[in-house]
Amino acid sequence: MPEPTPAPAIRLGRVIHALRRERGLSQAELAALTSLRQPNLSRIENGMVMPRRGTLEKLAQALGVDASDLLSPERVQMVEAQWRAALTPRNAGQLFAGQLSAVPLYRRKPIEFDATGRLSGSADLVLQLGPLPGRAFAWVVPDDSMQTRRTSRQEDSFPKGDWVVFSSQPEVASGDFAFVVTPRLKLFRRVTWEGKAAAKIRLLPLNERFPQLAVARSDVLAMYRLVLRFQHF
User: Fold this and answer.
1) pTM of the model
2) What is the pairing mode between strands 136-140 and 101-106?
3) Most buried one in 64, 95, 171, 188, CB count within 10 A?
4) Domain limits of the chain?
């Protein structure tokens, strides 16, 4: 079945997002240049609203193009080709559907967190996914530490190259797969609580060639629970 054509607001949002990234502007910087509130610009880039003509002209001027160029067939086709090339996993029918959420994807750039464990810095790309709870990000598994051949349950093995999505909600429970952030490490592992009052967290790889690690619960800045995965595409 062919992929449905995105609505005009979604196509426009992708074009604006791509142009902003090409020019090295953050959302806050582009919002300031156009006198828009950043949440409103985010809604435009996410395809949730179609901006008025005056807003469209401000965006075009700030991005250095004509307003008509933002939805020209050539521009739209180029951006859509980029999205299809990067964002069409075989098992991700929720892409481009329903209410959209912008989720940063870290593919080549390292993931950065601030001192409180919140995401910071720029990503390689922004995925447009269905609604996700909390703060979320996507990441490409960089090695085979979470791949195992001992189980027939495909959901319990994460080969190198799989795309996985983590969120700050719901909270991580013992036994969950999670991305754990401490001042010294950033790892995707299965986590289990240990010790009195769960004072220690053990980080378990699925591949026996990789070591288990234990960290004090007090050292953990943040834990992001696995909420979605895409297989190779």
Assistant:
1) 0.58
2) parallel
3) 188
4) 8-86, 105-230
Determine whether 70 is exposed, middle or buried from the number of CB atoms within 10 Å of its CB (0-12, 13-18, 19+): buried
- As a whole number of angstroms, the distance between CA 162 and CA 85 comes to 15
pLDDT above 60 (res 2): no
Assigned fold of 105-230: Umud Fragment, subunit A (2.10.109)
All residues at 6 or more sequence positions from 157 whose CB lies less than 8 Å from its CB, including other chains: 146, 147, 148, 149, 151, 206
Is residue 223 pLDDT above 60, yes or no? yes
Omega before 170 within 30 of 0, i.e. cis: yes
Decide whether 8-86 matches 105-230 in CATH topology. Answer: no
In this predicted structure, what is the pLDDT of residue 150? 59
pLDDT tens per residue across span 122-162 = 888 777 676 677 888 999 899 999 988 654 444 578 888 88
Q: Taking the alpha carbons of 220, 112, 105, 76 in that order, is the dihedral positive or negative?
A: positive
